[in-house]
Structure formats: structure tokens, C-alpha cells
Write a structure and sequence with these properties.
The complex is a heterodimer.
Chain A: E1 8-10, E2 26-30, H1 57-64, E3 68-73, H2 107-114, E4 120-125, H3 131-137, E5 140-143, E6 163-168, H4 171-181, E7 212-216, H5 225-240, E8 244-248, H6 256-271, H7 290-301, H8 304-317, H9 322-343, E9 349-353, H10 369-374, H11 380-384, E10 389-397, E11 400-407, H12 413-421
Helix pairs in contact in A: 2-3, 6-8, 6-9
Chain B: H1 15-24, H2 31-48, H3 78-82, E1 88-89, E2 92-93
Antiparallel strand pairs in B: 1-2
The chains are: A alpha/beta, B mainly alpha.
InterPro entries (chain B): Asp/Glu-ADT_sf_sub_c, GatC
EC number (chain B): 6.3.5.-
Keywords (chain B): ATP-binding, Ligase, Nucleotide-binding, Protein biosynthesis
């Protein structure tokens, strides 16, 4: 069954509590989210046989809510990729577009929902890794405000950017899953009070009367014609339902992709230093000294995209280059935040195509990493600014799914859920 | 950094510098990877250069440290902590020589 799309790395049933708001739901959990006693590989040979001794906070909360976890979903290795082709366990496929990638890095999670192999799924989003596969697979995905959902037990890639979030067939179901996992956690000091006692599912009313939607020209210009047509048609729907649409300008987003990759790679180079093959993970054997054994374990067990990012991050942080790359990237991040703050003074939410293109063909983007990075242009600004965003299906172009993204102010999840639900 | 290398772009690292960074990062690379990375890094770093156009922006100053009391709490048992180690001895991790 799952072999069809290679959705799961590990199929294993983890039963939740007897009752709760998710008692009738099955959930696929991305394989970088720790599950006690069930192997968690991050799509890497490095963690091929790693079995966490504890649950991530979101997994505890799923169990408390009565959900049944049905497997650990396939993903780009350590979340590094936009297609789920960098998984050491083979690429996942797109159930909504045969021969195409499901997007990434949470491609297995989105494909599980699209194929009906799970009712719901958890992914993680560092620069678009929930919204990209949601758009490519024709499902709903939410990247929460930074600090809304605990990252305790999420294997870190770029801590200052990433959040765990839901994927589901409908806005209301995604919102209900977000209700279950959000809220403060004493084990993650970056969580905030705002997620406690939420009713996001109740916000999916479809009412957009008197809502002002801003459209940043910079996030529409680069999109394919077919994607733009679907985007404009969605805006027309919203206008008919009483929303106002106006153009806004976010000049800073032109630099978001390079800022994002410098910051993400820098954090990755530090975070992935923990994989030494001594405490856990693939061991290179103990010949020679520590540096040699460490290098050998990492040469053998990391895939090429992971090596590429560790090296570029190490380079960006190295003596003589720190100010040139990392410091300027932080300036760009501050600029992006400022631009969004100003935009939200005059509009309630912002809208853009989620991805500038329909899903890529399998193998299309692998040879040119820079082209793959550029595909994230519309999603990474949101992570740089710590904001919430939702991707909703916006129909198809030439039979391929298109997604529309709504971005809200910090902790404005209700707003984006309300506006998104109007398109269903 | 290394003055023995020249990349395809003025500021881009050449193969020797890619090897040097790989050493710093403790990631072994084979010759094919060094070749591919040298070529790709020229493109990618060239693109990162556009950060030069970013104006200086006043950063948010409202960050605060979040501390908790330093008190004993439940943690993994020694057995759990060692469960994923490739080699252990007498309750310790066993690794290669440090130098």
C-alpha cells in the first residue's frame, strides 16, 4: 500500500489515549520528530538504526488527544531539500501528480494525506517544507508562528527558523491538529503562551467580509503563467465573498532567499556537528584519531545535499567571511521583518502563490542546487519573519496542483485559517 | 584562507579551499564531490554576494533571555542514554582517540 508512493520510512502503529479530540484520526509523523521506541531516521543513513528514548512534545500531545500514529513519513535528509528526493530511503512520489515530486522536505507527510494513507500528518517547516509539499500534493499545510509549537524532540536543522505544523485535507482538520499540538512547553524556552487553549478549528468559518488582503507584487512576478491564473482566480473568489484585495510592496523579499540559505546553512553546520558516530548514529569505526574517525563516519553517512549545506555554512561562518555573509544575512532578516510589520499596518493578511511553479518532474532539480534553492522564494520570507502562513489548494494547471499562500501577523493563525477556509 | 587556490569566480573557493573547509567541518569528501562542490559553490556564493545590496537595518531590541530554576529534574537513565551508542564500556561511551 504505502510502497506505491514510498510515503513511510517506518510503518508502525502507535496508539493514543482512548478518547480525545483526535480519537478517530490517524496521523503520519515526519521522521525528524522523535518517537519513543520507534526509529527516527531524518531520512539519513546517519540515523538508520537510531531509536529515540523519548517522545517529542508534539507526539505526547498527539497521544493525549487520542490520535493513532500510523508511521514515520519520508522526507528530504535532515529536512534539506524541496522534493523529497534527497531521502536516503528513496524518493517519495506525488499521489496527486504521477511522475512528479511531492515537494519537500515534508513530502512523505503531504503524500500520506493526499493518498489517504493517513487522515492527518505532521511536518516541519524551516523555509517552506510544509507549504511546498502541501501545494504540490493538493492538500492544506500550516506553518505556525515561531514559538507557537514546541520543537522539543524535533531533530534540529536550523533552530531559529523551524516550526512543526499540520497537513490535512481541509483547513478545519489542519486547524484542529494545530489546536492539539500548540501551546507553551517548559522543555522549549522559545514557546509562548499564545498557543494555550486555542480554538483554531472554530476559526474556519469562511467569512471574509471586510477582510483586506494584500498582494506583494514581488511574490507574484516570478510565477508561471498557469500558477498566476489560478492565483488570480482565487483572489476573484475572495472578492466575490466580500474581501478587498490591494497591492502592497515588500522590497526586502528580493533578498530573502540568499539570507535564508546563509542563516539555515550556518545553523545546520553547527547543529549537525552532534553526529559523531560515538553517542548515536553511524560509526566510522575507531581507526585513527577522533577527527579522522568523525570525518569518515560523516563522509559515509551524510548525503550530498547535507554535506553541501554543512560546508557552505562552515564557510559562511569562518574567519574573514562571517561579516560578509552571516552578518549581512541577519540584516536582511531584520529588513524582511520590518517590511512585513509595515504591510500589516494596512492589511489583514498577505496572499501569494505558495510555489512559483507546479510540481517538478522527478529528477528535474537535483543537478542544480541553486535552482532548487530559488524555488523557495515565496515561502522563506515567512520563516525569516517568524510569521504564520497557510497553503490552500487553488485548483490545477494542466492537471497539476497549485497552492495559494496566506501570511498573517505573528500569532494571527485565526486570520489565515478564516481566509483560507473561504476557498474551500 | 588558502592562497594556493583560485576558483572560477574571483572570490569563490577553489578545490584546495573546498578541501580545507571540509576538514574544518570534519566531513570527508571524495574527488568527484570536491570537483562538483567547487563548481557549485562558485554559483551559490556568487548569488549570496547580492546580500551586499541590503541596507543596514535597526534590529529588534526586545529579546530577553528565558531562564528556569537550576533544579534537578527527571532525565534519561544511563542505560537509555547509552542505548544508541555503537560502542560502550563500563557504562561510558567508547570513542576514538581524541588526538
Amino acid at each position: 500500500m504505502s510502497a506505491d508512493y514510498n510515503v513511510f520510512i517506518t510503518e508502525e502503529t502507535i496508539e493514543g489515549a482512548d478518547d480525545g479530540p483526535l480519537a478517530d484520526s490517524t496521523v503520519a509523523v515526519k521522521d525528524n520528530i522523535s518517537t519513543e521506541g520507534v526509529r527516527t531516521t531524518c531520512g539519513s543513513e546517519m540515523l538508520d538504526d537510531y531509536v529515540p528514548p523519548y517522545d517529542a512534545t508534539v507526539v505526547e500531545r498527539l497521544k493525549d488527544a487520542g490520535a493513532t500514529i500510523v508511521g514515520k513519513a519520508n522526507m528530504d535528509e535532515f529536512g534539506m531539500g524541496s522534493t523529497t528526493e534527497t531521502s536516503a530511503f528513496g524518493a517519495a512520489e506525488n499521489p496527486a501528480a504521477p511522475g512528479r515530486v511531492p515537494g519537500g522536505s515534508s513530502g512523505g507527510s503531504a503524500a500520506a494525506v493526499a493518498a489517504g494513507e493517513a487522515d492527518l500528518a505532521l511536518g516541519s517547516d524551516t523555509g517552506g517544507s510544509i507549504r511546498n509539499p502541501a501545494a504540490f500534493c493538493g492538500v492544506v499545510g500550516i506553518k505556525p508562528t515561531y514559538g507557537l509549537v514546541s520543537r522539543y524532540g524535533l531533530v534540529a536543522y536550523a533552530n531559529s527558523l523551524e516550526q512543526i505544523g499540520p497537513l490535512a485535507p481541509t483547513v478545519e482538520e489542519a486547524a484542529a491538529l494545530l489546536d492539539a499540538i500548540s501551546g507553551p512547553d517548559e522543555r522549549d524556552a522559545t514557546t509562548r503562551e499564545e498557543g494555550a487553549g486555542t480554538d483554531y478549528a472554530g476559526a474556519a468559518t469562511g467569512d471574509v467580509e471586510d477582510t483586506t488582503i494584500g498582494v506583494p507584487a514581488e511574490l507574484v512576478e516570478g510565477a508561471d503563467e498557469g500558477v498566476r491564473e489560478r492565483f488570480e482566480a482565487s483572489l476573484d473568489d475572495l472578492r466575490e465573498r466580500g474581501a478587498t484585495v490591494e497591492e502592497v510592496s515588500l522590497p526586502s523579499v528580493e533578498h530573502a532567499v540568499e539570507a535564508y540559505y546563509v542563516i539555515a546553512m550556518s545553523e545546520a553546520s553547527s547543529n549537525l556537528a552532534r553526529f559523531d558516530g560515538v553517542r548515536y548514529g553511524h560509526s566510522g569505526g575507531f581507526d585513527g584519531n577522533w577527527n579522522e574517525a568523525f570525518s569518515k563516519a560523516r563522509e559515509e553517512a551524510f548525503g550530498e545535499e547535507v554535506k553541501r549545506r554543512i560546508l557552505l555554512g562552515t564557510y559562511a561562518l569562518s574567519a574573514g567571511y562571517h561579516d560578509k555573509y552571516y552578518k549581512q544575512a541577519q540584516d536582511a532578516r531584520a529588513w524582511v521583518k520590518q517590511d512585513f510589520d509595515e504591510a500589516f499596518e494596512s492589511v489583514d493578511v498577505l496572499a501569494s502563490p505558495t510555489m512559483p511553479t507546479p510540481p517538478f518532474e522527478v529528477g528535474e532539480s537535483l543537478d542544480d542546487p541553486l535552482q532548487m534553492y530559488l524555488a523557495d522564494a515565496n515561502t522563506v520570507p515567512v520563516n525569516l519573519a517568524d510569521l504564520p502562513a497557510i497553503s490552500i489548494p487553488a485548483g490545477e494547471t494542466d492537471g497539476l496542483p497549485v497552492g495559494i499562500q496566506f501570511i498573517g501577523p505573528a500569532f494571527g493563525e485565526e486570520e489565515i485559517i478564516r481566509v483560507g477556509s473561504a476557498l474551500e | 584562507m588558502s592562497d594556493t587556490s583560485t576558483g572560477s569566480e574571483d572570490s569563490a573557493p577553489g578545490p584546495e579551499e573546498v578541501r580545507h573547509v571540509a576538514d574544518l567541518a570534519r566531513v570527508g569528501l571524495d574527488d568527484d564531490e570536491v570537483e562538483r562542490f567547487t563548481e557549485q559553490f562558485a554559483d551559490i556564493l556568487d548569488y549570496f554576494e547580492t546580500l551586499d545590496e541590503v541596507p543596514e537595518v535597526e534590529r529588534d531590541a526586545d529579546l530577553v533571555n528565558v531562564m528556569r530554576e537550576d533544579e534537578v529534574r527527571d532525565s534519561l537513565t544511563q542505560e537509555e542514554a547509552l542505548a544508541n551508542a555503537p560502542e560502550t564500556e563500563d557504562g561510558y561511551f567508547k570513542g576514538p582517540n581524541v588526538s
